[in-house]
Automatic annotation (TrEMBL):
One of its GO terms (biological process) is protein polyubiquitination. It comes from Aegithalos caudatus. Signal peptide: none annotated. The active site is at 134 (glycyl thioester intermediate). Keywords: Ligase, Transferase, Ubl conjugation pathway. This is HECT-type E3 ubiquitin transferase. Residues 1-142 form the HECT domain. The gene is Herc4.
Length: 142
């Protein structure tokens, strides 16, 4: 039984995907030659390709720009108070809502900037916040 299980696992995880992986690797290396990747340590390459997955959320707050708001406006203070009380998973969900990804590029949060703006709606209580993922703008009604 053990030999059967070992053979089955080897087939599922190695043999069955060998040809598609080789095809992918060939195409990937055509566009991104291996010599260019050798300068990175594995951890650095992972961050470069996948982005950061852990964050200093206070740095995120520090880097925000405001339009039609001031940093000390009550709406903004309420937003950050609630945001910082969220569990880590929900904060990452906010990143997805804002940017389309739960990760930050390899440059890190130091270079990640987004804007919070007031959409200046007639009845702001009737609207939910919305985002422009391409522009990294959070439209936050008062």
């Amino acid at each position: 039984r053990k030999e059967y299980v070992d053979l089955y696992v080897n087939y599922v995880f190695n043999k069955s995907v060998q040809k598609p992986f080789e095809d992918f690797m060939q195409g990937f290396l055509r566009g991104c030659p291996a010599r260019n990747w050798k300068m990175f340590f594995p951890e650095e390459l992972q961050v470069l390709l996948q982005g950061y997955t852990t964050f200093d959320w206070h740095l995120l707050e520090k880097n925000v720009k405001y339009s039609q708001y001031e940093k000390l406006d009550q709406t903004i203070r309420n937003f950050w108070t609630v945001f910082h009380k969220l569990p880590e998973e929900k904060k990452k969900m906010f990143l997805v809502f804002l940017s389309g990804s739960d990760r930050i590029t390899g440059y890190g949060l130091e270079c990640f900037r987004f804007c919070i703006t007031d959409p200046q709606l007639d009845n702001p209580d009737e609207f939910c916040p919305y985002a422009s993922t391409c522009s990294l703008i959070l439209f936050l009604p008062r």
